[in-house]
Amino acid sequence: MSEFITILSHNLWLFSAIAFTFAAVIGSFLNVVIHRFPVMMKREWQQECNLYLNEYHEQLIKPIADKLDKPIDEYPEKYNLVVPGSACPKCKTDIKPWHNLPIIGWLMLKGKCASCNTSISARYPIIELLTGTAVAFLAYHYGPSWEFAFATLLTFVLIALTGIDLDEMLLPDQLTLPLLWLGLLINLNGTFTSPTDAVIGAAAGYMSLWTVFWAFKLITGKEGMGYGDFKLLAVLGAWFGWQLLPLIILLSSLVGAVVGIALIVSKKLHQGNPIPFGPYIALAGWIAMIWGADINTWYLSTL
After folding, report:
1. If we measure between CA atoms, which residue out of 30, 37, 38 comes closest to residue 125?
2. What is the DSSP letter of 276?
3. Are 234 and 206 within 8 A, CB to CB?
4. Measured between alpha carbons, how far is 235 from 205 in angstroms, rounded to an integer?
5. Confidence of residue 6 (pLDDT cuts 50, 70, 90)
6. DSSP track, 63-116
7. pLDDT tens digits along 287-298
8. What's the half-sphere exposure (Cβ side, CA atoms, 13 Å) at 231?
9. Which residues are listed as membrane-spanning (predicted)?
């Protein structure tokens, strides 16, 4: 095993190619997570609501309880990240294994269902390509190391969170909170930053956006962002330390403002309508992971 790692260390292009292939396969699974995880959460919420309604309000609001007893959308009763298998949402034909190959499968099908010719969203191969490319870059940047392994895991979760937030305006605690604790644990031996900086980073990341949230709400009476955004910034603070938080906030705010203005100008977004902020935090955090220290050093040298 050590000899194989040595070979990969001296052949980073080979390591990157292997990493790309592996990550593209995981990217196919991330498409499943992005689509199914919110449905699974909604079902869990529905079950909790049903339990509450049936136990405490059966007589008062029975009509509402009856409506909530109906399944969410058209999804089957047993529905998780594994079951049922992938199928066309229109004709329900099972997707053949070779059509599920990352990127290649979509190209083979020319972006359409093999049975009913319904268009298949280009988002699927895009996420697979994005995941593969990002992890291949990490492989070349870090080489075969623990830093690469942890950075890859973080990248997978950030991509899943980005897709879910774009679709649902939601950053699930089931993904952000384990990532927060993992960031603190892996930095006990200083993988990316010191334990002290990681703890301060987690607290500062959460409290900085929490403060902005409440200041904005007290001034305008409106909520400017969700609690998931606080937790995601806390995750990045736990992973990379408090020193990179100003850069992450600056980059995410800049990109978010540019995209928001562009959407308003193109009339794809009306003023006052919310846009998800999580994707910009995730992108800024990934950039900071790779180049954050260099950017901070360059900035300080210009002062």
Report:
1. 30
2. -
3. yes
4. 8
5. confident
6. HHHHHHTSPSTT--SS-SSSSSPPB-TTT-PBPPGGGGSTTHHHHHTTTB-TTT
7. 999 999 899 888
8. 17
9. 12-34, 148-166, 175-192, 198-220, 232-265, 277-300
Range with the lowest mean pLDDT among 92-96, 249-253, 274-278? 92-96
Tokens coding 245 = 């938080």
Tens of pLDDT, residue by residue over 215-270, are: 888 888 877 788 899 999 999 999 999 999 999 999 999 988 888 777 777 767 66
Find all residues with CB under 8 Å of 189, minimum gap 6, and list them: none
Give 112's strand partners: 119
Is residue 8 within 8 A of residue 57, CB to CB? The reply is no
Phi, psi for 225 (deg, rounded to 5): -160, 170
3-class secondary structure, 214: helix
Residue 119, helix vs strand vs coil? strand
What is the pTM for the complete model shown? 0.87
| Nearest CA-CA partner of 97 in 89, 107, 85 | 85
